[in-house]
TrEMBL record:
Lineage: Eukaryota, Metazoa, Ecdysozoa, Arthropoda, Hexapoda
Pfam family, one: DUF7041
Domain DUF7041: 23-107
Region (Disordered): 186-210
Protein's UniProt name: DUF7041 domain-containing protein
Organism: Aquatica leii
Amino acid sequence: MAEEPEVVQVAPTTQIAATTVTLPPFRGNKVELWFVMAEAKFNLASPKITREETKFYHVISVLPPEIAGEVSDIITEPPGDEPYTNLKKAIIARTSLTETQKLKQLLAGQELGGRKPSQLLRHMNSLVNTQAIDEKIIKELFLQQMPVSIQLILVSLTLGLEQLAEVADKIIETTPSAIAPVTFQPETHPTTATISTRPRASTNTTPNVT
């Protein structure tokens, strides 16, 4: 009697396809925008990436060393609950500029030059016209660009920013010397000799020969 062939049971195999996602280069100056773009990549992946842990490791794989250093505590000891969400919050909180810092960076180098104060103010406003900025911040930066003699007058007035600029215009129109550069002289001790730029009186006591 012929033997029946041995039947070998083969367990079904499950194939797990690794999802490949190419995240955009990390933008340290636009952190929140970068995360929006990264999450768009996660949503468009096939299959869609939804696991916190997977997103966490994708993000840390593209972080520049200086950014990774800011969140090294989270990278080395990932939170058990929502690691990606916690990493995202930490990166934004620790590396993003405050609104004041962003504005100061935007307006850096905006000097009075040959412009009227009102022209300078309009230019500064044009740079931030799409942002909800506290007027106090713009006022502070505007006053910093005024000559010291004008600053002293403007800070004592309780006027709106545009009115202050108009006052500054009038001061410059009526007192051109107000825009002259101010040189700060260090204080000297009473016993320290003061250097004078005036010519000294002659000390020659030789009598005239007649």
